[in-house]
């Protein structure tokens, strides 16, 4: 209680006269909250609760039976294909996030701390692909990696191989590559934001005290960009873990991920209760990851 | 490509200045030029795949093995394909309606979240971001179950509601940061001068947040226009353009797929350009600081 009051004081360093007015506006402000609360209830909370309820039902024959059972969750643990593919998806998501960070960090460093001009333009240029057609990017990579694709033609043109190689498409590699391609802008934003926030005078002070480039990087830049690392890593991890379209389009039989198993329960396997249970497991994992992220990264909105 | 070169130059210019200032920084120039080459490579990695799609949309041959002759015929075929054209119009319809709803919920919600104090506000904000941050598959199945248990038929309406789920957080976040920066002073001044809440909103607040609203609308439209992961679950027979393209992809990639992809690409880039134009100015100001 005391802490919130102290915080309140900090935020509103205003005379107590204002307090009366604040109370007055509050009713109107609360009314402004009605649409968003309704939206949250109808579009987010109730559907997730319904999914949870569905996950405790069971499918027998063509009917969904209204009994309360843990069987769907049990079959997740009993059936090794399910949790094996989840573990594999974890591994793939880890590789994707790790690679995306390694690739984006030097770029974010360069644009945010080295360049003096054209920063916002170059920043936009990186994040445009974030909003520009997900499908187009999938189509692009299928074109490049396919049997008759660009990469094979290039290799044959350079006489490196005589026949088109089928190793590029329809496996884990093509899925990881495309997911990383999609994750780079996602990871770039929090890295850039974190790096940009580091005050220059800290760096200057360190240099005045005799630190060389390596020391400045190791003891100032790197630790202070940690929130960006965490946020970027987690966001791209969630993104990669839950995807089903990219594995479907580029993964073939070996590149399937957890999302495909969830998806198939709503498609040809048509077992909604099991699909809901698997979906809820994915939801829990994502929620835990987000909670951790929010704890470690700054107060501000981190997702945009 | 041009852009990559542009910033590479500016990178060396900076390095030059520093170099003339002191010899100590000589090594820095090397490092920066390494970084600028690296950055050019990453920009190439990001844009060449998109470029490939556009190039092959003009290829007269159906294969992607080689580029034969330049042609516009695939684009002309797109306009002849009535199913594709109606999917395109459906997409515009869905995105427009979803954006208008999201603007209303998101803007009012942003005022609420910035100005009201209540316990669990941070938690509320986290939950409100979920539809955008969670994997689309979760939102998709949760909404599917919701609609089916309400006995809704999967049609335009369910798709629009699905799009409202993730466009709202987009608008909400954009508007919250704008309203936070705006502060209360202007509105308080208006009210001190005797304006009622209605007048204050339309004459003072709205003009101040107008550009942010337009920017958020463009961003939400772009994201919505392109969405497939959630939409796929909520689609009956009435489909949007990405779902239609996805259907085309089952029969393999063709120049027609490339042509429609290129159009989507160009439309999205135009949208993002307008988004940047409307929100970019404020963004740049905060960057300079």
Question: Please, could you describe this protein's structure?
Answer:
The complex is a heterodimer of chains A (304) and B (289). Chain A is mostly helical and 304 residues long. Chain A contains 14 helices and two strands; from the N terminus they run ααββαααααααααααα. In chain A, strands 1-2 form a two-stranded antiparallel sheet. In chain A, helix 9 runs antiparallel to helix 10. Chain B is mainly α and 289 residues long. Chain B is globular and about 70 Å long. Residues 1-24 and 281-289 of chain B have low confidence and may be disordered. Chain B is built from twelve helices and no strands. Chain B has two domains: 2-56, no CATH class; 77-288, MetI-like (MetI-like fold). The interface between A and B is large, with 92 and 104 residues.
CATH fold category name of the largest domain in chain A: MetI-like fold
Structural class of chain B: mainly alpha
Assign the CATH architecture of the largest domain in chain A. Orthogonal Bundle
Q: Which parts of chain B are unreliable, with pLDDT below 50 for 5 consecutive residues or more?
A: 1-24, 281-289
Structural class of chain A: mainly alpha
Terminus-to-terminus distance of chain A:
31 Å
The CATH topology of the largest domain in chain B is MetI-like fold
Task: Supply the CATH class of the largest domain in chain A.
Answer: Mainly Alpha
The top level CATH class name of the largest domain in chain B? Mainly Alpha
């Amino acid at each position: 209680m005391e802490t919130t009051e102290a915080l309140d004081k900090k935020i509103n360093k205003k005379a107590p006269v204002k307090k009366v007015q604040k109370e007055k506006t509050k009713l109107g402000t609360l009314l402004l909250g009605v649409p968003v609360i309704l939206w949250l209830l109808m579009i987010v909370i109730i559907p997730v609760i319904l999914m949870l309820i569905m996950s405790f039902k069971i499918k027998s024959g063509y009917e969904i039976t209204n009994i309360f059972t843990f069987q769907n969750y049990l079959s997740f643990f009993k059936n090794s294909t399910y949790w094996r593919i989840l573990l594999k998806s974890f591994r793939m998501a880890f590789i994707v996030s790790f690679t995306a960070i390694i690739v984006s960090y030097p770029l974010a460093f360069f644009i945010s701390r080295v360049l003096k001009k054209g920063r916002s333009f170059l920043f936009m240029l990186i994040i445009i692909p974030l909003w520009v057609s997900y499908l187009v990017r999938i189509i692009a990579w299928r074109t490049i990696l396919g049997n008759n694709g660009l990469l094979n033609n290039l290799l044959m043109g350079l006489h490196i191989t005589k026949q088109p190689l089928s190793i590029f498409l329809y496996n884990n590699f093509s899925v990881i590559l495309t997911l990383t391609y999609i994750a780079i802008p996602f990871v770039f934003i929090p890295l850039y934001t974190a790096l940009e926030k580091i005050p220059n005078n800290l760096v200057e002070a360190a240099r005045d005290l005799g630190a060389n480039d390596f020391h400045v990087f190791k003891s100032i830049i790197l630790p202070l960009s940690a929130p960006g690392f965490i946020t970027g890593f987690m966001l791209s991890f969630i993104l990669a873990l839950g995807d089903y379209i990219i594995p479907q389009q580029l993964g073939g039989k070996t590149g399937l991920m957890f999302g495909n198993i969830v998806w198939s329960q709503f498609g040809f396997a048509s077992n909604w209760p099991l699909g809901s249970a698997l979906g809820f497991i994915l939801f829990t994992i994502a929620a835990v990851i987000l909670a951790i992220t929010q704890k470690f990264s700054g107060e501000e909105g981190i997702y945009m | 490509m041009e852009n990559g070169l542009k910033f590479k130059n500016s990178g060396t210019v900076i390095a030059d200045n520093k170099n003339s200032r002191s010899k100590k920084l000589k090594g820095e120039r090397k490092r920066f030029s390494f970084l600028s080459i690296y950055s050019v490579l990453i920009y190439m990695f990001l844009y060449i795949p998109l470029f490939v799609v556009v190039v092959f949309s003009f290829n007269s041959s159906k294969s992607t093995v080689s580029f034969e002759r330049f042609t516009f015929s695939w684009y002309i075929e797109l306009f002849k394909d009535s199913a594709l054209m109606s999917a395109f119009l459906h997409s515009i319809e869905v995105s427009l309606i979803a954006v208008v709803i999201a603007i209303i919920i998101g803007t009012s919600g942003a005022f609420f979240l910035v100005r009201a104090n209540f316990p669990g506000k941070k938690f509320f904000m986290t939950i409100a971001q979920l539809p955008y941050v969670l994997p689309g598959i979760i939102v998709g199945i949760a909404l599917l179950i919701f609609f089916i248990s309400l006995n809704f038929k999967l049609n335009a309406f369910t798709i629009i509601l699905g799009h409202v789920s993730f466009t709202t957080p987009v608008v909400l976040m954009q508007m919250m940061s704008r309203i936070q920066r705006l502060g209360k002073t202007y509105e308080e001044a208006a009210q001190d001068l005797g304006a009622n809440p209605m007048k204050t909103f339309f004459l003072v607040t709205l003009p101040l947040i107008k550009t942010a609203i337009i920017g958020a609308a463009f961003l939400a439209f772009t994201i919505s226009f392109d969405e497939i992961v959630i939409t796929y679950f909520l689609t009956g027979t009435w489909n949007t353009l990405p779902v239609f393209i996805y259907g085309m992809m089952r029969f393999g990639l063709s120049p027609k797929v490339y042509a429609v992809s290129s159009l989507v690409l160009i439309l999205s880039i135009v949208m993002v350009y307008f988004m940047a134009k409307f929100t970019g100015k404020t963004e740049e100001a905060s960057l300079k600081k």
